Amino acid sequence: MSDVLICEVGPRDGLQNAKHLMPTAAKKRWISALAAAGLREIEVGSFVPAKLIPAMADTAEVVAHARTLSGVKVVALAPNLKGFERAVAAGAHKITFPVSASRRHSESNVRMSPGQMVEEVRRCAASRDPHGPEIEGAVSTAFGCTMQGEVPEDDVVRIAAALAEFCDCVALADTVGYANPAQVRRVFRRVRDEIGDRLEGAHFHNTRGLGLANALAAWDEGVRAFDSSMAGLGGCPFAPGASGNVITEDLVFMFESMGVRTGIDLEKLLAARATLIDGLPQEPVYGHTPLAGLPKGFRAAA
Amino acid sequence: MSDVLICEVGPRDGLQNAKHLMPTAAKKRWISALAAAGLREIEVGSFVPAKLIPAMADTAEVVAHARTLSGVKVVALAPNLKGFERAVAAGAHKITFPVSASRRHSESNVRMSPGQMVEEVRRCAASRDPHGPEIEGAVSTAFGCTMQGEVPEDDVVRIAAALAEFCDCVALADTVGYANPAQVRRVFRRVRDEIGDRLEGAHFHNTRGLGLANALAAWDEGVRAFDSSMAGLGGCPFAPGASGNVITEDLVFMFESMGVRTGIDLEKLLAARATLIDGLPQEPVYGHTPLAGLPKGFRAAA
To answer: Does A241 score more than 60 pLDDT?
Structure first.
């Protein structure tokens, strides 16, 4: 029973931006520990060319492992049709396509304009088997871009609406940590007005410390699915300055202390950090709640 | 022109908990730099026995300096009648009394029960000259206590109501970083229902990373005055585990990016960190916005 879905994206968004490689066996242990803590959706990797992002070279094997974990929806990122075909072959339950609302970021990231990328996702969706995986269109740089600066809200709404025509769900991502709570409320409301419940997820970075405040703002707007990354790993290698996903431990603590059930066992979640640290000992880890511990007399949401 | 008042408490809450002493001259430079950045309320020190907190021994001299800065409301903390008399003599414009809602914290901190402390503040208020300083009653550990655990909301409301009888304004403080946004909304609403506009300030710590989310929640409830500390210095030496005030730089960035005018110049604020670091070079400093910088094309609220 849960009131909010936390999708752990550390094995993808975190590791693809880490300075060191986590061995495949360690990834599997970490993902197993996350599942044991109650994570029900885990983005385990990305089907990008291994030459571009060596950390994601073992994604097919990691997907195969994650599929053995009962009750876990296994998510993988695909940047194009080729990645989509590999993700389908690997057996991902859900495939997420980032579609940047910033033309400059899109061209730098996937060498396609936002409109071309929408068409690429449309082709993937059209090629899909009726029993194939769920498809998510994630509007990235939806709140600003380190290359372009401001991203017009009209562009975000238009791309989200286009994706909603053929994606099972749409997410909005603050890829570079530019979002503020007022903007989050405004943009989520505008997109919700346009595509209704097809709008599902929110993906925030903590670059300027506003990650949890933005999550709260999205929650207030009815968002019930959030990406986050254990220990705040993450960023985007093609968007300079985009550091640190929202920290899963702090996000879960926030919701649970508010009485919002995440379905995640906080003690087990904090314990799972050890498997991350074992697998990537050189990488800095973040998190306020892990450092401070749970409050005296803390009770999880019930 | 501003929509929200940020009270910088670093020179008091930050320095009293720092591991090293900032020389008096450096304090003055830092406070001047804060004023130059647009801070209009600064809590510059605490009139506690110098033996207990050596970092506050020079508070009278620091108050005298701060009084020379045009347009700055100079705030000092007093824990009792003796401290109040010293604060009045020094010329503080506003004197804040912490009244802990946690019996255990109160007894450990000031060797008085919460009720005895309310009476102490009442005596101070009664002894006040009609042209004397403003008096604030700050309900501390209002959202939980590291010693006692849960602090009943009824206790918070009762103490706030008692203080409102003779204080110019009342604040609620999450002294140890236990608060969550749902609780913040609930408790501020309850206290507002009881004492109306006499309820003014919110003081949050970032111990579990929820500082800005709690500030946003309080803002939503109509709170328009917030304490914060440059570089996230701070805590409470008598409440173990109470680390880090909300970071001024990130709080100002949040509000300004939301279109809420703080009256503070963010560039000058970020530059003012240098005076803090010069004065206390051994102390760790925090802040996401200072590390990441302002977003490309960022515009302050206008």
So the answer is: no
DSSP summary character for residue B295:
P
Chain A contact residues (CB < 8 Å to B)? 144-150, 176-178, 180-183, 206-210, 212-213, 215-217, 220, 241, 243, 247, 250, 253-254, 257-260, 287-289, 292-293, 295-297
Q: CA dist B91 to B62, B72, B135, Å?
A: 11, 13, 13
First to last CA, chain B: 9
Cβ pair A296:B145 closer than 8 A: yes
Partners of B5 in beta bridges:
B225
Name the CA dihedral angle for B182, B106, B149, B237, rounded to a multiple of 10 degrees.
90
Q: What is the mean pLDDT of chain B?
A: 95
Distance CA(B274)–CA(B288), nearest Å, equals 16
Length of chain B: 302
- How many whole angstroms separate alpha carbon B49 and alpha carbon A213? 38
> For domain B5-292, is the CATH number 3.40.50.360?
no
Kindly report, residue by residue over B26-49, the tens digit of the pLDDT.
999 999 999 999 999 999 999 999
Q: Element (H or E) spanning B29, and its range?
A: helix B24-36
| Model pLDDT for residues B213-243, shown as the tens digit of each residue | 999 999 999 999 999 999 998 754 554 454 6
Q: Could you give the maximum distance between any two Cα atoms of chain B, in Å? A: 53
- The pTM of the full predicted model, rounded to 2 decimals, is 0.96
Domain extents in chain B: 5-292
Query: Tokens standing for B282?
Result: 């051994």
| Separation in Å, CA of A247 to nearest CA in chain B | 9
Check if the beta carbon of residue A267 is closer than 8 Å to that of residue A4.
Answer: no
Cβ B60 vs Cβ B299: under 8 Å? no
Q: Does the active-site annotation cover A236?
A: yes
Can you tell me the ipTM of this complex? 0.95
Instruction: Convert B69-104 to b/e letters by CB count within 10 Å (16 or more is b).
Output: beebbbbbbbbbeebbebbbebebbbbbbbbbbbbb
* Token pair recorded at residue B83: 């401290």
Nearest to B209 among A148, A247, A259 (CB): A247
